[in-house]
Design goal:
single chain; 409 residues; Aspartate Aminotransferase, domain 1; Aspartate Aminotransferase, domain 2; 8-stranded mixed sheet; 4-stranded antiparallel sheet; 11 helices; 14 strands
């Protein structure tokens, strides 16, 4: 049977993420994978989970295994509201919607606000999950380049002036300001303020996705954009995936009550409710103060892997290759010399059981062919040392070939 004629128009936009394609490689124990942005399973608090989960089932099993409210478990919503308030973004539980990871929040916001052809601003390079969620609702994604201080607000301002002349002002901008996926850069305080000012001037929303903010290894924390929002135009996404467990699929969305009501309605028709067991487990971990202790234990472990990968890149990568030096999060962004294909390098690396993600999928218009994302979070120190050394040899050989071609041209 031919299904093409039956698909909705929006289905033509849907495609598999380039990142997800490489997840199957991580299931092979002999692969040195820097591809998926996974937390390390070595760091999961297994004993504590077993203890808390056993008590949860014994005390609340009949509720934890049942359907729950679409908006989420009340005690968890209350805890998150208190957490956000302590972090400078005062709110109540009525402003919190529990989601199946922050990814569902991106989808719900796009479903609520995007009509076919609407302009949505995105970082470039940007997180593929966010780019995909927006694209699935047939938005016109307009990319704004990044530098070491985050999104270029000067270029954003110029873009907004142009869009205003075209009568095509954006619905919202999607960005990851802390240790951005894929580059690892952190948006400066000055740029956050400038972004808010532009949002007020041109009347668009800000979708602030912050899965990595608590994983800072050095430097001073920067206030969230939401904490500086006085108008309710910032919609904030948070998650337990990187600080506790991605498997429980518990994230949250903070917004004005009017928006929460609409999003809750959209969520109800999608999945009825989020994981009841996972929500109650997350609440018990969080309310007991254990998650804070767990995050504190994660920081030196991830910092060690970050430092090791940076040191190995410095040791093994040839001159001409550049990379970011993130202060937190999971990712290092690598730029190969102009003209080199990251995808071709990846294919050669896979032959030697090394994997990363080539950068083209993080761009709206398939640019960035000489860029790549490396994740240091999941790979063991031994795999980092060996894998980066192998890549250094591959890069040396590729650059030697390129240099020879230039000389004979």
């Amino acid at each position: 049977m031919k299904f093409e004629q039956l698909y909705a128009d929006r289905a033509r936009c849907m495609k598999t993420s380039a990142v997800r394609e490489f997840f199957k490689l991580t299931e092979q124990p002999d692969v040195m994978s820097f591809a998926g942005g996974f937390p390390s399973a070595d760091f999961f608090p297994m004993d504590k989970v077993n203890e808390v989960l056993s008590a949860l089932i014994a005390e609340e099993g009949r509720f934890a295994l049942q359907y729950g409210a679409t908006e989420g478990y009340g005690k968890l919503r209350g805890y998150i509201a208190e957490k956000m308030t302590k972090e400078g973004a005062p709110c109540t539980a009525e402003q919190i919607l529990i989601t199946n990871g922050s990814q569902q929040g991106m989808d719900l916001v796009s479903k609520l606000f995007v009509n076919t052809g609407d302009v949505v601003l995105v970082e470039e390079p940007g997180y593929v999950g966010g780019l995909g969620a927006i694209y699935n609702y047939e938005a016109d994604r307009v990319p704004i380049p990044l530098d070491d201080d985050g999104i270029r607000t000067d270029l954003l301002a110029a873009c907004l002036r142009k869009l205003k002349l075209e009568n095509r002002l954006p619905k919202f901008i999607y960005l990851v300001p802390n240790f951005q996926n894929p580059t690892g850069v952190c948006m400066s305080l000055e740029r956050r303020r400038e972004l808010l000012a532009l949002a007020r001037q041109y009347n668009f929303l800000i979708l602030e996705d912050n899965p990595y903010g608590e994983l800072r290894y050095e430097g001073e924390a920067i206030p969230s954009i939401k904490s500086m929002d006085t108008e309710g135009r910032v919609i904030y996404l948070g998650s337990f995936s990187k600080t506790f467990s991605p498997g429980i699929r518990v994230g949250w969305l903070m917004a004005e009550p009017e928006i929460i009501a609409k999003l809750s309605s959209a969520k109800g028709s999608t999945d009825l409710c989020s994981n009841s067991l996972g929500q109650r487990l997350a609440y018990r971990f969080a309310a007991s103060g254990y998650i804070e202790k767990h995050v504190a234990s994660l920081l030196p472990r991830y910092q060690e892997r970050r430092d090791l990968m940076l040191d190995c890149m410095e040791k093994y990568f040839p001159p001409g290759v550049k990379w970011t030096r993130p202060q937190g999060g999971f990712f290092i962004w690598v730029t190969f010399p102009h003209g080199m294909s990251a995808h071709e390098i990846l294919l050669k690396a896979i032959e030697q059981k090394v994997a990363f993600v080539d950068g083209a999928g993080f761009f709206v218009n398939d640019n960035g062919r000489n860029t790549a994302r490396f994740s240091f979070s999941e790979a063991s120190p031994d795999k980092i040392r060996k894998g980066i050394a192998i890549l250094g040899e591959i890069l040396e050989a590729e650059m030697a070939v390129a240099c020879k071609k230039e000389k004979t041209a």
